[in-house]
Specification:
alpha/beta, 25 helices, 11 strands, elongated
Length: 534
């Protein structure tokens, strides 16, 4: 068998000790036994002490040969991998080699990219994979394979390489797993965040990784920037709104050059427009948050893209049943269950434990808000927005009406928890019901009127009185031209209850009388009885 041919390099410096029994090919071994220069980092590494220690510990375990750092776009997988790799050369006597796969589009070029990095070139009459296996067979080296998701089908080549090189390990960064036997995954979490419901002091606020990163990057554009009592709450809110995503936080912090921190939270309502202007020496996909997410979106199959777009209508997560009912019409090419599984695997959707209800905990699936905004933007551009949002409104109206009936029995606590979990979806559905002035808008408003009537009991039990009053008043006003109906009488009763609870008994009585008149005119005995009870 031909021995590997190293690429000459006259600037290697001191070489690590060679393995015992080097024999023939010692020159080749000496050239390869080096640390490939890791990408130079121009800013200090913030936080991640726990994650760095955990990844290092996994890499040093004897049973871990392939470790994949997975996470959504902008979460900091590459930076974490570089940080860990920089501290590992002593543990891999034959070098740590960083292979950037971002520019590569053809999976067949993965092995040549690795070979070039470690210093091996192809020889006549032998597959390069075999040459590389021979070259690395007796070496203890770490391969850092960065940005693997767009060539994931080449994972088998990596597995084949590792199978013949017992002391070589691979640290992979990817937005999805390689799905190889023996692969160990490590989901990279967001940076630590303050509790949005609390107001920590400045010292404790600075200990949160997301806040520390914001301050560091803000000082890069404004050396005089300080975290103060005046801007602390705004900075914390920005970090929470951005889900602790390092890339998004860095891009937002750069805006303090022209905006006060207190102005940023409102601007983040259009975060994809705000989070631009990344450094020119970064890859294009890392210069804006939109480009970072677009990179992942373009790697999806058409059916997956359709499901991804549809998921943009959900606020605060959803169940599989909701996805099937709302997004089922998006594209017949992909089943909702399989699509959800795929999007979770690609770090574009997250699985969370759901609330206990209906006999068990139903898992929920959540998009990070920055990713959801992108999905909804794509949904609008596809021409599918109206139909998908209409299905969303219909679905949650049915859920609310079912819960209203069930709460009359012994299932009140369970349904209250279910509605708690979907409270933001209910709000999103109500907002949608108020859109449009044409026939479709009229139908939505009537559906919204049904929804507020069904949520009246929930809002009352949870003491969301002012919110319930606001929604009822808006929908009653919007649907007034439609005339009397059972749904209108019901919404009037709900609004009357809120006015009474909020100490306006005169207005409550007036609303009850309107509801009573409608119920009697329609011959609705059940509605009449409910109104008289009020």
């Amino acid at each position: 068998m031909s021995r590997a041919m190293p690429v000459s390099n006259s600037n290697q410096g001191d070489e690590p000790s060679l393995p015992d029994g080097a024999g023939e090919g010692t020159e080749a071994r000496a050239v390869a036994a080096r640390v490939t220069p890791l990408p130079v980092q121009f800013t200090p590494f913030v936080g991640r002490e726990r994650e760095s220690a955990a990844v290092r510990q996994l890499l040093l375990r004897g049973d871990v040969r392939l470790l994949t750092l997975v996470g959504p776009p902008g979460i900091g997988k590459t930076r974490l991998a570089i940080q860990v790799a920089a501290g590992l050369p002593a543990d891999f006597r034959d070098g740590v080699h960083f292979v950037s796969l971002g520019p590569i589009r053809d999976p067949a070029l993965i092995i040549p990219a690795i070979a070039e990095t470690v210093g091996v070139r192809e020889t006549a009459g032998e597959p390069l994979l075999v040459t590389l296996q021979t070259y690395l067979k007796d070496r203890a080296a770490l391969l850092v394979l960065d940005n693997f998701e767009h060539v994931a089908e080449a994972g088998q080549h990596v597995a084949d390489l590792l199978s013949e090189c017992a002391h070589v390990k691979a640290l992979v960064t990817s937005r999805e797993l390689l799905h190889l036997y023996g692969e160990q995954d490590y989901p990279v979490p967001p940076l630590s965040l303050p509790d949005p419901g609390k107001s920590p002091d400045l010292d404790s606020l600075s200990e949160y990784e997301a806040v520390a990163l914001f301050v560091q990057r803000a000082r890069a554009v404004d050396p005089g920037f300080q975290l103060t009592e005046q801007n602390a709450r705004a900075v914390a809110e920005v970090c929470v709104q951005l889900d602790g995503l390092p890339l998004a936080i860095e891009l937002a912090a750069a805006r303090v050059l022209v905006l006060r921190p207190e102005e940023l939270p409102a601007r983040l309502k259009s975060r994809l427009k705000l989070l631009t202007g990344g450094a020119r020496n970064l890859p294009e996909r890392q210069r804006t948050i939109r480009a970072a997410i677009e990179w992942s979106y373009n790697l999806l199959e058409p059916g997956e893209q359709a499901l991804f777009r549809g998921l943009g209508v959900f606020a605060g997560g959803c169940t599989v049943d909701a996805i099937e009912q709302v997004c089922g019409g998006s594209d017949p090419q992909i089943e909702a269950f399989d699509g959800v599984t795929s999007l979770v695997g690609k770090s574009l959707l997250q699985r969370q434990a759901g609330a206990e209800w209906a006999g068990g905990a139903e898992p929920r699936f959540v998009m990070l808000e920055t990713i959801r905004e992108f999905a909804r933007e794509k949904l609008g551009g596809s021409g599918e927005l109206d139909a998908t949002c209409d299905r969303h409104l219909d679905y949650f109206t049915q859920i609310a009406e079912r819960s209203d009936q069930e709460t009359l029995g012994g299932e009140l606590p369970l349904w209250m928890r279910r509605l708690d979990a979907d409270q933001n979806n209910m709000r999103a559905a109500l907002e949608w019901s108020l859109t449009g002035n044409d026939r479709a808008g009229g139908r939505r408003a009537v559906q919204g009127l049904r929804l507020v009537g069904a949520l009246g009991r929930y809002w009352q039990f949870r003491s969301y009185l002012s919110e319930g009053r606001q929604w009822c008043a808006l929908l009653l006003d919007k649907t007034e031209p439609a005339g009397p109906s059972v749904d209108r009488a019901r919404a009037l009763r709900a609004l009357a209850r809120f006015e009474f609870e909020l100490s306006d008994s005169v207005e409550a009585r007036r609303l009850y009388e309107q509801s009573l008149a409608i119920s009697r005119a329609l011959g609705d005995g059940q509605g009449e009885a409910a109104t008289l009870l009020g």
